[in-house]
Design brief:
The chain is of the alpha+beta class and about 375 residues long. A hairpin with a 2-residue loop joins strand 1 (about 15-25) and strand 2 (about 25-35). It is built from nine helices and 20 strands.
Length: about 375
């Protein structure tokens, strides 16, 4: 029998957070948050510090109590059920391994608390250590393992208790970039293989977009948008989502008849039913292309390259248009043709954009 097999209790379950509110003194950390995770789905909650994502995870885990709202797991209301009876596995930023125990003993610890017999504990520990690729390191202690290996032991320990739900709270933020990317993919592989419903909390947009079935972007205790990663990136619902997820150029323009005129280029709007008038268009760098051939007469989209950031196969080019700075992202082979100091002409691809407007100043009563 494998760790993923048809073991009872391993099938994904539905999780519902219904109108959860949590306040700390005068601060509202969560404001009537409602979120449903489908059986076996991995949902990532993404947002800046203080947006409420970790509070949501802690309420689901039972580590904190909500001021109002309900937590429902597999159709059962567990709002008032203590954390140790919710059958939830958790992996935190800190590995929290017992230093005097081997990797195997760490994995077996939770099962001991569940009064699982020694033979079954050993079999299950072997299964999950193999699942996370650490079977050969079962007898090593924490100080003999790398950071990435320690985090995989923590993941194996969380899975060994056969939880209904897996919660991941910034599990990769203490690791270096290369290990983080590799372990991120490993977590997704394991989650898919086991088929467990998972809530992943992170402030790293690349992590969220890379592994989640759906991403929820949070701000000030509210869920701004929830959807597949491609939708969150290419069709952001609000200016906050557009600016938080990925890089965005802010270019002044004029709205007219469902489009916005940006420096002589008309671009359709995500929401065409907005009032005409001045606005700031939010344009993705990959929607900007540049050319340096032909005549370079001055114009609203003619400027000078001032920097090129090498990102591997892609590069980010910074162009000074005189009164504003615009970023363009393109293949490195193309970017290398326009070194700093080159005069270029920009073209804006007509992808639908969001706009942002200045909020009117509040007037005194």
């Amino acid at each position: 029998m494998t760790a993923t097999g048809s073991s009872e209790g391993r099938a994904g379950v539905e999780v519902r957070l219904e109108h959860l509110t949590r306040k700390y003194a005068t601060t509202t950390a969560l404001d009537r948050l409602t979120l449903t995770l489908a059986p076996g789905e991995l949902v990532a909650l993404l947002g800046p510090s203080g947006c409420g994502k970790t509070t949501a995870l802690r309420l689901l885990a039972g580590l904190e109590e909500a001021d109002s709202g309900r937590v429902i797991i597999a159709g059962k209301d567990v709002t008032n059920v203590p954390a140790n009876r919710r059958n939830i596995g958790m992996v935190f930023q800190a590995y929290s391994l017992f230093p005097h125990m081997s990797a195997r003993q760490n994995v077996e610890f939770g099962m001991q608390l569940q009064h699982v017999g020694p033979a079954e504990r050993r079999e299950r520990a072997t299964e999950v250590l193999d699942l996370v690729g650490l079977a050969a390191h079962a007898n090593k202690f924490a100080h003999q393992l790398s950071g990435g290996q320690q985090q995989r032991v923590a993941l194996a320990r969380a899975l060994a208790i056969k939880p209904k739900v897996l919660l991941l709270d910034e599990p990769l933020s203490a690791l270096d970039a290369k290990v983080r990317a590799r372990l991120r993919d490993e977590i997704r592989r394991v989650q898919l293989e086991v088929g467990i419903t998972t809530l992943f909390v992170t402030h790293d947009q690349e992590e969220a977009l890379a592994i989640a079935d759906r991403v929820g972007v949070m701000q000030s205790g509210h869920l701004e948008q929830l959807g597949p990663p491609t939708e969150i990136y290419s069709r952001p619902a609000t200016p906050f989502v557009a600016e938080f997820v990925g890089l965005t150029n802010r270019i002044k323009g004029e709205v007219h008849g469902g489009t916005v005129d940006v420096r002589g280029t008309r671009i359709p709007l995500v929401d065409p039913d907005v009032d005409d008038g001045p606005a700031t268009a939010l344009v993705r760098p990959e929607a900007v292309t540049l050319a340096s051939n032909g005549e370079m007469e001055d114009g609203p989209l003619v400027g000078t390259v001032i920097a090129i950031a090498f990102l591997g196969a892609m590069s980010r080019v910074t162009v000074d248009l005189g009164d504003t700075i615009v970023l363009a992202q393109m293949a490195t082979s193309a970017a290398s043709q326009t070194p700093a100091g080159t005069k270029v002409r920009l073209t804006l691809r007509p992808d639908p954009v969001l706009i942002q407007r200045e909020q009117p100043a509040a007037t005194a009563p």
